[in-house]
Write a structure and sequence with these properties.
By secondary structure, the protein is an alpha+beta fold. Helices cover 47% and strands 14% of the residues. The strands form two sheets. It has a five-stranded antiparallel β-sheet with strand order 1-2-3-5-4, sandwiched between helices. Strands 6-7-8 form a three-stranded antiparallel β-sheet, covered by helices on one side. It is globular. The structure holds adenosine-5'-diphosphate (ADP) and magnesium ion (MG).
């Protein structure tokens, strides 16, 4: 055992750190990762979200670093490596590098619109990470045959500055898809269909709703119960409200100018925290998967408005982007600014059509 490692282990022990499996991680995945983790720097698994395995470090040299392995971007490389076809592997790696360049550009745009302090310092990179046959079998939903022995794979990794999120002073600005049977709305007593209908009218119809602000707010918070805390705080904390207002302007402007549909569905993707300098915004995980853009959404709108049907991929894109539009406008409504993000032609698709098209995503 190397001495430095022994020293660090002792420090971790002295701090009495005991790490347990985060609730979001299946035990078979957790156990497998425990076996794969290197001793160096004392990594531990913090979370598994929709996209990333998120690691922190007990090594006192890296207290404020977070290491995130992007699973969906890495799986094509895993498949290519398993195929034994070197050309395919090269292509998959090239694709990953292209993705990294794109993310870097998008980060630069985000810093411009939201300010550097809102975007945690981070670096996208390709890193060889250890994997096992078993982990790959669990993660690959559609293996192309038998999975062979595999020891490591080039992965898309983001190293990010840790964001301090004190639980009493952190407010998450996310809203999961109300159409999903797993949404917070589905767990309330409110009628789902009626709520989505009203919410869509308010959030997608520009400024067309005839309801007063109070009623609009009530529907929107019903549709996105996650926003209840945000609305509550905005009503009582002027400092928070001022910061939220500023954020809302930037969100509308950013989305309108760049056409980048931010990912606002995931828990804690965008948060506001209060520290010694007051409320600050942190955009931790809002860059969308590159597989879609606002242009795809416009094509989808055109298709639906002439009675076309969406395939599974299009339905997924539509749901993500529709959610972004609604969330940007919900935050604008709560912040009480007049600006809204508008998409021409959106009003031509009814809520019934959207819900029908999304059904295919939530089977099983
Ligand atoms: N920079 C960070 N600092 C502190 N916690 C983080 C950081 N990045 C992510 N996390 C934690 O990990 C969780 C998942 O991270 P995220 O980047 O949103 O991944 P995913 O795309 O898988 O949802 C977050 O909800 C948060 O609790
Ligand atoms: Mg996330």
């Amino acid at each position: 055992m190397n001495l430095e490692y022994a020293f660090n282990k002792t420090v971790a022990k002295a701090k009495n750190i005991s790490r347990t499996r985060p609730k979001s991680v299946k035990s078979e995945v957790y156990d497998e990762l425990q076996d794969l983790m290197p001793d160096e720097h004392l990594p531990y698994l913090m979370a598994q979200g929709g996209e990333h395995f998120v690691f922190g470090f007990d090594d006192p040299k890296h207290p404020d670093l977070i290491y995130k392995i992007n699973v969906p971007e890495t799986l094509p490389v895993v498949k290519a490596q398993l195929s034994g076809n070197p050309e395919r592997l090269e292509k998959a790696k090239e694709e990953m590098k292209r993705m990294i360049n794109k993310k870097r550009e998008q980060l630069a745009e985000m810093r411009q619109y939201f300010g550097a302090e809102a975007v945690p310092a981070q670096q996208y990179m390709v890193r060889e990470v250890p994997v096992s046959k078993k982990l790959v079998e669990v993660l690959l939903k559609d293996p192309e045959g038998q999975v062979e022995e595999i020891e490591s794979v080039p992965a898309l990794v983001v190293v990010q500055r840790r964001v301090d999120m004190p639980s009493d002073w952190t407010i998450s600005l996310n809203g999961f898809y109300p159409e999903s049977p797993k949404s917070a709305l589905a767990f309330t007593k409110d009628r789902v269909g009626e709520t989505i209908e009203a919410g869509n009218e308010i959030l997608l119809g520009g400024m067309m709703s005839e309801l007063d602000r109070e009623s609009q707010l009530r529907w929107v918070v019903k549709m996105y119960p996650e926003l209840d805390t945000v609305a509550w705080r905005a009503e009582r904390d002027p400092e928070f409200k001022a910061k939220l207002e500023d954020l809302a302007y930037r969100l509308v402007e950013f989305t309108q100018d760049t056409n980048i549909p931010l990912e606002l569905a995931g828990r804690d993707n965008m948060v506001m925290t209060k520290g010694p300098k007051g409320w600050t915004v942190k955009l931790m995980d809002v860059l969308p998967m590159d597989r879609y853009s606002m242009n795809d959404f416009k094509r989808i709108l055109a298709k639906l408005s002439v009675g076309g049907k969406l395939n599974g991929n299009e339905a997924g894109v539509a749901l993500n982007i529709l959610n972004t539009i609604r969330m940007v406008n919900a935050i604008a409504l709560i912040a009480d600014i007049p600006e809204r993000f508008k998409v021409i032609g959106l009003e031509r698709v009814t809520t019934e059509t959207w819900c029908k098209e999304f059904e295919q995503l939530f089977k099983d």
